[in-house]
UniProtKB/TrEMBL annotation, chain B:
GO terms for cellular component: plasma membrane. GO terms for biological process: phosphate ion transport. This is Phosphate transport system permease protein. Residues 86-302 form the ABC transmembrane type-1 domain. It comes from Micromonospora acroterricola. Belongs to the binding-protein-dependent transport system permease family. CysTW subfamily. The keyword Transport applies. The gene is pstC. InterPro entries: MetI-like, MetI-like_sf, Phosphate_PstC. It is a multi-pass membrane protein. Gene3D superfamilies: MetI-like. The lineage of its organism: Bacteria, Bacillati, Actinomycetota, Actinomycetes, Micromonosporales.
Length: 300, 314
């Protein structure tokens, strides 16, 4: 985990990329969003090899192989119960919190096995943050929500006020909350709370941000703000998003993985990865019939 | 009631008040009665305390009552300073709180955040049964087990007395641990799981999740648990009567002294053959009113604290 060549993303760096700004999200035809090869370098951040995930005796996910590229937005889509959230939560060991959950196979982060015995899950989550389906700000002030991560992880912060401001700016929330940083985060609207949760995640400078249906509790305007934000953040962060909303996957992601539930010989349902390719390919010319059926709305 | 044909429009008359529902009235009446009885009882208690208290202060000056350092109404030289009882009560309550708060909250954090579901299912009912042990049992536990142990282990030559405030406070602290732990655990379990997940996702350790997210999130419930524990300690009678003695002839400066509390004085005095309307008899009510003021103040404080710390999760 101490590769000196790998530059950790920096919250204090607001304009770190010289790439042209992405076109406005809502106006783009989903199919044309990501022309050509995915941008960003092709370095792999996360790699799943024959990953099987169990809850007790029940196998929730079977045989997933995929890689997640640096500074890309990777979308995991599929019908309910297909295991996409389970896969997402295996990437920063959030499944550890569920009694009986177990991961077999290899999940590697820059080549390092995340489930090796010497790996500290706390350290994993410092580098791989997560934003949840329902906004879950702490019942503290906006300021303390942002400062929470740097404080618990013992980051040496010379100027916490500045860090809070940078994180809020980065999450496109600063203008709305700058005068009420000391007020309770619970007074914010749902969309603002979710951006606060993103700001809070950014504040510990992770490399990867996992998002588990981050817009499913939000209205379309708030959703569009979060999507713009995701695109903006993907310059510096690697993002993996689970979404039920296919248009969202098409709008924001570079690569899309389609999961579905399959019934095995014993009659048990397991989530499986059906197809994984550039978002453009998945939405315009999927290789698998089931992918096509799902994205055209014929099932799921 | 009119017969309604399916599909046909409902006649306008059907929304008018037709049949009376007498059951509603009966139930409402019963509920009002329940509320009135409890309020009336409270008022009755206040009134029955107030008149004898006023009569008492007709004969003894408030200044003597509040500043006097000896409480000897049943002796030949009568003195009416309530301070010895007050200090005894404060010692015992303080010691009980110092013991019960860390143990109770520690146990609650363990049960809510660390224990596996199976362990929790086993331990919580045991804890709640512990809260049901009669206080007289704790009193004898203090007198016959804790106190000899305390005297044996006491580091200096100035040993605790046979009955003392310290041992009563310790026993009382142990007694209220289950109450504090159980209520605090309820409050902590009510903190949404999503907040814990959010904290873990920000690289918190288990201890950080417990102390920085769960405890602050449950603070109003935890404060309520502590206040309930403290008010139980304040009003507890049996343990102090047995384990702390009934001495009242001086302020107990040290907790290893034996001394009466407000409650144990009342219990002790009420056992005797005090003639009704004698001054001795009135002392019971004066002390009772003082105790009532304390518990009342504590409850008022707790309501304010609980409101202050209440977090509303949507």
């Amino acid at each position: 985990m101490s590769d000196p060549n790998r530059k950790a993303p920096d919250v204090t760096d607001t304009v770190s990329s010289t790439r042209p700004a992405p076109p406005p999200v809502a106006l783009v035809n989903p199919a044309n969003r990501n022309e050509g090869a995915p941008r960003g370098d092709d370095e792999q951040v996360l790699r799943l090899e024959d990953v099987n995930i169990f809850y007790g005796d029940y196998q929730a996910v079977r045989g997933v192989d995929m890689t997640i590229g640096r500074h890309q937005i990777t979308a995991l889509i599929g019908p309910s119960g297909c295991g996409k959230s389970t896969v997402l939560r295996s990437l920063n060991r959030m499944n550890d919190l569920i009694p009986g959950a177990r991961v077999a196979g290899r999940v590697t982060y820059h080549g390092e096995d995340l489930y090796a015995r010497e790996v500290d899950p706390i350290e994993v989550r410092r580098r791989i943050g997560m934003v949840f389906q329902k906004p879950n700000p702490f019942p503290k002030s906006i300021y303390d929500n942002i400062a929470y991560g740097p404080r618990v992880t013992g980051m040496r912060v010379s100027n916490m006020d500045e860090l809070v401001e940078k994180a809020l700016r980065r999450a496109a929330l600063w203008d709305e909350v700058k005068d009420k940083r000391k007020q309770s985060a619970l007074a914010l609207s749902g969309g603002q709370q979710q951006r606060l949760c993103i700001a809070r995640t950014i504040a510990v400078s992770p490399e990867v941000i996992l998002m588990d249906e981050p817009c499913s509790a939000l209205d379309p305007i708030a959703t569009s703000k979060i999507e713009d934000l995701m695109f903006e953040l993907s310059r510096d962060y690697t993002i993996v998003i689970v979404t039920h909303n296919m248009q969202q996957a098409a709008r924001v992601s570079h690569r899309t993985a389609f999961f579905t539930a399959e019934v095995d010989e014993q009659g048990e349902r397991h989530g499986r990865l059906i197809e994984y390719d550039t978002t453009n390919k998945i939405f315009t010319n999927p290789a698998q019939k089931r992918t096509e059926e799902y994205i055209t709305g014929r099932f799921g | 009631m009119a017969v309604i044909t399916p599909g046909a429009p409902v006649p306008a008359a059907s929304v008018r008040r037709g049949r009376r529902r007498p059951g509603e009235r009966v139930i409402e009446g019963f509920l009002v009665l329940a509320a009135v009885v409890s309020i009336a009882t409270t008022i009755g208690i206040v009134v029955s305390l107030l008149f004898p208290t006023v009569e008492f202060f007709g004969e003894v000056s408030i200044i003597e009552f509040v500043t006097g350092t000896q409480w000897t109404p049943l002796f030949s030289i009568k003195q009416y300073g309530v301070l010895p009882l007050l200090v005894g009560t404060l010692w015992v309550t303080l010691i009980a709180t110092v013991i019960a708060v860390p143990l109770g909250i520690g146990a609650a954090i363990y049960l809510s955040e660390y224990a596996r579901p199976g362990t929790r299912k086993l331990l919580k009912p045991i804890l709640e049964v512990l809260a049901g042990i009669p206080t007289v049992v704790y009193g004898f536990f203090a007198l016959t087990f804790l106190n000899p142990l305390l005297i044996d282990l006491w580091p200096s030559d100035d040993k605790p007395e046979f009955q003392n405030l310290l041992v009563a406070g310790i026993a009382m602290g142990i007694m209220i641990v289950p109450t504090v732990a159980s209520l605090a655990e309820d409050a902590m379990s009510a903190v949404p799981q999503s907040l814990r997940e959010g904290a873990y996702a920000l690289a918190s350790t288990k201890m950080q999740v417990a102390t920085r997210v769960v405890v602050p999130g449950a603070l109003s419930g935890i404060v309520a648990a502590i206040v309930l524990g403290v008010s139980r300690a304040l009003g507890e009678t049996m343990i102090v009567t047995i384990a702390a003695g009934l001495k009242t002839d001086g302020i107990p400066w040290s907790p290893i002294d034996g001394a009466a509390t407000m409650t144990s004085f009342i219990a002790g005095a009420a056992q005797g053959d005090l003639p009704v309307d004698s001054l001795d008899y009135l002392t019971i009510f004066a002390v009772g009113t003082t105790l009532f003021l304390f518990t009342f103040a504590l409850n008022a404080l707790s309501i304010r604290l609980v409101r202050k710390f209440r977090e509303v999760y949507e």
